[in-house]
């Protein structure tokens, strides 16, 4: 028997009512309702219902014929919804919330924006502009692509006189082909794109060509889980949007006083980007253009917040792409950023903030990705990306991004965590470096279908000062870890077959200091350029060293000597500031080093002409400092008519293919540059 009766509806009306047809507001939350409890015959009597609260129930979908012709506001938070397409039966819907439905994704957001033309607010956010873009620009682009696909591959297959069987056959082939081959926008929206392409293709066949689609239409074929999704650059979408820079959350327009789209210098008649440095190395054509400026980590969502510091960002790996084998295809256009109380996922091409995760009492310092093979329904296994985020509270949050769900936490340290990183060979192994002067190795386990998991501590590395940056040695990531600390650069043996669970450092590296060598200096930037070359930045003004891991560490020998001189290969020219914690990063596949400065600029070094000589066992040190290939200057931005305050670049990271450059600042602005 259904839980919902006439008496219950009258009692739960706000205010209570004596007639069903008089009810305008109805609260059916927290009743453990399932889909079968929503009786269309009973709901059809709620002819004037405008507000309906179904939150905190067990609904997995909506019946297709609830018949609520005047419904304007619907709350479905905290259910088990798997599909949103049935919501099209509520055409007057203006406000919709369905947060904490773990099976719904960004693709479902786009579906409801397309289906509900009157929708203004989705999960509390104004989506009017985006929804108009989805319904108009997106639909126009996809229609054009579907039509072109027919003209190019299928038009000549249809004879002038055709039978019903021929129509059925070509229709089936066309629908399958068009969903596979027509791509548009970011990969995170591929499900929505396939859904719209199928819809457009059916309309095209029916109305443009007169090929009626009757009841024998084939069910939509799902893409095999092991198939690699095909994507193309979302540049086309960007070209349809006015070139205005937006700062998100809330949406505030930044006046782009010097913000013009610049193309590569090979295009005739185009001027060079004003952001390019006036150096001879510019001839190498590594120009980049500013694409988006986002303010998505604001405390309390205030657009007046220019104090929140942004610290860490990392690109999401692509599933089923052989990511661990080929770094060029190991990243998507989606980047995770952290700072203040929030972690954001951003589509670099569109500038869309795809997801946002907040902890009011936290200040996040670091994020890292791993890919876990999890057991889903029916005992099937599927790879999912998991994001670890940590900061001031010493707690690691584990987020299943596709489900938009933080499924657990690890109380790793009693003091703040400065940085985290996953092992490239052991997907569940996570290193956490803390202000307690310890680096811990954790096995985070693999959550089951109910998100139960068990984490365990495998190792503790004792440091003599606070570890700021950590890096696993690429040639032996299960044996050695390198750390840049407040008091120097250290290495530990992390091999787990050794009995000792708590270990001191195995080596400390000396670096030049004027005319002598010293171990006592802050190392606030550390990364590997390739399997052997380490890039480290010290507290010495203007100093970034490149040095050989193997030649330095091998000099230690098998004795008890722990102090080792770093074998310096080169020194990079950088800012003369003595300001700390402006960290560096590398793009090994393209042999680039990046480092921001105290003026909002990004220093870029293309070292491809040097690495061959350095790889020689007796490769000599470059005598002169290597100048930057290019310096990207911070563009002139005006926020509400004013320029932002002094801008420090805390971090700058590129994707593995060096298509995008994400710049994190001290003034709560994430800048995204795109390589021309």
TrEMBL record:
Residues 287-675 form the Leucine-rich repeat and WD repeat-containing protein 1 WD domain. SUPFAM superfamilies: L domain-like (SSF52058), WD40 repeat-like (SSF50978). GO terms for cellular component: centrosome; chromosome, telomeric region; kinetochore; nuclear origin of replication recognition complex. It is found in: Chromosome, Centromere, Kinetochore; Chromosome, Telomere; Cytoplasm, Cytoskeleton, Microtubule organizing center, Centrosome; Nucleus. GO terms for biological process: chromatin organization; DNA replication; establishment of protein localization to chromatin. Residues 7-200 form the Leucine-rich repeat and WD repeat-containing protein 1 LRR domain. InterPro entries: Leu-rich_rpt, LRR_dom_sf, LRR_LRWD1_dom, LRWD1, WD40/YVTN_repeat-like_dom_sf, WD40_repeat_CS, WD40_repeat_dom_sf, WD40_rpt. The keyword Protease does not apply. Signal peptide: none annotated. Residues 215-237, 257-288 are annotated as: Disordered. Residues 265-278 have a biased composition (Polar residues). Keywords: Centromere, Chromatin regulator, Chromosome, Cytoplasm, Cytoskeleton, DNA replication, Kinetochore, Leucine-rich repeat, Nucleus, Repeat, Telomere, WD repeat. Residues 215-231 have a biased composition (Acidic residues). Belongs to the LRWD1 family. This is Leucine-rich repeat and WD repeat-containing protein 1. It comes from Scytalopus superciliaris. The lineage of its organism: Eukaryota, Metazoa, Chordata, Craniata, Vertebrata.
């Amino acid at each position: 028997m259904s839980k919902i009766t006439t008496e219950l509806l009258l009692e739960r009306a706000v205010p209570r009512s004596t007639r069903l047809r008089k009810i305008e507001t109805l609260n059916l939350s927290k009743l453990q309702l399932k889909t079968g409890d929503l009786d269309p015959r009973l709901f059809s009597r709620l002819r004037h219902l405008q507000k309906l609260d179904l939150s905190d129930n067990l609904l997995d979908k909506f019946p297709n014929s609830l018949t609520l012709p005047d419904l304007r506001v619907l709350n479905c938070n905290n259910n088990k919804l798997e599909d949103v397409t049935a919501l099209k039966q509520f055409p007057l819907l203006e406000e919709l919330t369905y947060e904490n439905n773990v099976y719904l994704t960004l693709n479902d957001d786009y579906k409801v924006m397309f289906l509900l033309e009157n929708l203004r607010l989705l999960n509390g956010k104004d989506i009017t502009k985006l929804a108009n873009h989805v319904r108009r620009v997106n639909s126009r682009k996809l229609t054009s692509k579907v039509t072109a696909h027919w003209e190019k591959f299928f038009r000549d297959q249809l004879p002038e006189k055709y039978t019903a069987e021929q129509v059925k056959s070509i229709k089936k082939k066309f629908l399958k082909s068009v969903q596979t081959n027509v791509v548009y926008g970011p990969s995170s929206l591929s499900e929505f794109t396939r859904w719209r392409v199928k819809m457009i293709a059916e309309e095209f066949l029916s109305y443009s060509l007169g090929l009626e689609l009757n009841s024998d239409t084939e069910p939509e074929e799902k893409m095999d889980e092991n198939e690699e999704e095909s994507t193309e650059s979302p540049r086309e979408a960007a070209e349809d949007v006015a070139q205005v820079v937006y700062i998100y959350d809330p949406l505030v327009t930044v006046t782009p006083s010097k913000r013009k789209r610049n193309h590569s210098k090979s295009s005739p008649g185009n001027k060079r980007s004003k952001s390019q440095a006036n150096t001879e190395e510019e001839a190498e054509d590594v120009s980049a253009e500013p694409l988006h400026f986002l303010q998505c980590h604001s405390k309390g969502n205030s657009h007046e917040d220019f104090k929140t510091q942004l610290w860490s960002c990392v690109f999401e790996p692509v599933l089923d792409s052989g990511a661990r084998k080929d770094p060029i295809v190991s990243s998507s256009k989606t980047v995770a950023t952290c700072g203040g109380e929030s972690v954001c996922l951003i589509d670099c091409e569109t500038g869309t903030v795809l997801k946002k995760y907040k902890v009011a009492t936290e200040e996040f310092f670091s994020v890292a990705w791993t890919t876990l093979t999890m057991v889903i329904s029916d005992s099937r296994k599927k790879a999912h990306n998991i994001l670890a985020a940590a900061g001031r509270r010493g707690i690691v949050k584990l987020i299943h991004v596709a489900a938009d769900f933080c499924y657990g936490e690890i109380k790793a340290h009693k003091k703040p965590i400065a940085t985290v990183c996953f092992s490239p060979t052991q997907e569940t192994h996570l290193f956490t470096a803390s202000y307690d002067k310890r680096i811990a190795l954790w096995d985070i386990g693999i959550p089951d279908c109910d998100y139960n998991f068990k984490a365990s501590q495998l190792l503790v590395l004792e440091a003599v000062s606070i570890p700021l940056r950590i890096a696993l040695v690429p040639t032996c990531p299960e044996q050695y870890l390198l750390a840049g600390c407040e008091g120097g650069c250290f290495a530990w043996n992390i091999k787990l077959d050794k009995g000792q669970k708590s270990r001191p450092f195995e080596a400390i590296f000396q670096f030049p200091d004027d005319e002598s060598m010293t171990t006592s200096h802050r190392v606030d930037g550390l990364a590997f350029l390739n399997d052997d070359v380490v890039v480290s930045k010290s507290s010495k003004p203007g100093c970034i060293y490149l040095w050989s891991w193997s030649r330095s560490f091998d000099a230690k020998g098998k004795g008890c000597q722990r102090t080792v001189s770093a074998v310096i290969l080169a020194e990079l020219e950088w800012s003369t500031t003595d300001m700390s914690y402006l960290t560096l990063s590398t793009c090994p596949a393209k042999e680039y080093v990046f480092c921001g400065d105290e003026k909002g600029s990004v220093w870029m070094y293309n070292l491809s002409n040097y690495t061959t000589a350095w790889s020689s066992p007796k490769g000599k040190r470059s005598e002169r400092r290597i100048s930057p290939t290019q310096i990207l200057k911070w563009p002139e931005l005006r926020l509400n008519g004013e320029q932002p305050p002094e801008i420090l670049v805390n971090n700058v990271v590129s994707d593995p293919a060096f298509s995008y450059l994400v710049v994190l600042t001290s003034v709560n602005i994430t800048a995204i540059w795109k390589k021309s």
